[in-house]
Specification:
single chain, mainly beta
Length: about 230
């Protein structure tokens, strides 16, 4: 019964996606479009979980096809200093946008590095270090990473007030800007978190990926993916 209910939910959500997905946006000046809205050309991931549905990059796991470890749809390019704009909708569970990332040996499509977290109330908008030092900056904080320590150097805002800018059940736009050792994350135009990374392990460049998280059955979608390199 539970499997049937989840399958029904996926069917209904696909219909809703077709109805609610924002119209394709024009490519902003200075950006390039890295998802064509029709195929996963230029991306690499486990086809068990990733596909294109209703013009969206779509990640789905089920009880029959479960994620054994966090797996990513990886863009076939690298980013150093960049700005990324991407629309996302999380139907349930946990996802994220990985950047300046590295591959984890022995685990296909597994990444580590900085992540713009996509989750519920606790972690939406934080800078997370996937296989890379854990939580790097909470929502509402500008955090300095130095000598293995994390120090909040500035308050961006109250974490609960910032969360009000996010539609936890609908579409949102993530904006990630990485310049030098500073990584700044915005959702729907509102600054959520920032990291100044002065640690020896700070990453200046790497891969870009979208996350399917281990755990319960889930669904996440992305669209309007625009990248500008500095």
């Amino acid at each position: 019964m539970r499997t049937f209910a989840f399958a029904l939910a996926l069917t209904l959500s696909a219909v809703l996606c077709a109805q609610e997905t924002p119209a394709d946006k024009p490519v902003p000046e200075g950006f390039v479009q890295i998802f064509d809205g029709k195929s996963l050309e230029g991306w690499d991931g486990d086809p068990t979980f990733w596909s294109v549905q209703d013009g969206c990059i779509t990640g789905i796991s089920t009880s029959e096809k479960s994620v054994q470890y966090n797996t990513f749809l990886v863009w076939e390019g690298e980013v150093a200093d960049f700005e990324l704009l991407i629309d996302f909708r999380l139907y349930n569970h946990n996802s994220g946008i990985q950047y300046r990332a590295f591959l984890n040996p022995g685990k296909p499509w597994s990444l580590g590095g900085y992540q713009g977290d996509i989750a519920g109330q606790p972690h939406m908008g934080i800078v997370y270090g996937e296989n890379f030092r854990g939580i790097l900056s909470e929502r509402g904080n500008k955090t300095l990473l130095k000598d293995g320590k994390k120090t909040v150097v500035e308050s961006i805002g109250d974490k609960n007030d910032l969360l009000k800018a996010v539609d936890l059940e609908g579409w949102n736009t993530y904006r990630i800007v990485a310049k030098g050792n500073v990584c700044t994350q915005y959702i729907n135009g509102v600054k959520m978190s920032e990291v100044v990374d002065e640690d020896d392990v700070a990453r200046a460049s790497g891969l870009l990926g979208l996350q399917m998280h281990v755990g319960p059955s889930m669904k996440v979608q992305f669209k309007n993916v625009f990248l500008k390199k500095f």
